[in-house]
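Supplementary material to the annual report.
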Amino acid sequence: GENVEQHPSTLSVQEGDSAVIKCTYSDSASNYFPWYKQELGKRPQLIIDIRSNVGEKKDQRIAVTLNKTAKHFSLHITETQPEDSAVYFCAAPRSGGYNKLIFGAGTRLAVHP
Amino acid sequence: DGGITQSPKYLFRKEGQNVTLSCEQNLNHDAMYWYRQDPGQGLRLIYYSQIVNDFQKGDIAEGYSVSREKKESFPLTVTSAQKNPTAFYLCASSNGPSGQPQHFGDGTRLSIL
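Predicted assembly:
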């Protein structure tokens, strides 16, 4: 069945280091991959997304890469700051249309000063 | 996103009681979704709706019901049949048939009295 696996489940880095979160999806027809950031007790917020016609997208300190052959995509955060501490979720489209998404289990990122 | 309003922020349910969570959006989005989030876990789809007067079950619809009488509104009722309702409930909306980001409300935290 459809599945999105996300690793690692927790990630601890020092301020200024880079952080990488990886997701693997199962449906080869998937064409849209968003990443969300959720701070404690708040709503998930879209931070970046990528479509299957590109291999990489950057937005300041955040980048996402997509490998369609291997069916995985990754979130890269450079020069991490304490305010980057949050839970990050990847997602991929579900079959059946309606713009449904299936979410990964999340990665809790802690950036230590 | 200020365009999606969920209320109340906190809700307490007594045993045997049905409670309704409100979700309103002014983004003119066609699709709306309800998710359940348990502590330390990802988002699981309860119900979704593409258009007015149409809605479909997600992965964990048992014990829940919805209606979509207006484009702007997608209320979720947690019925007494849902034996473990304590969770964080998130409403989302999106535009277009596929490949569009979902935007979330601030959530409702439901607890059992």
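Chain B has a mean pLDDT of 93.
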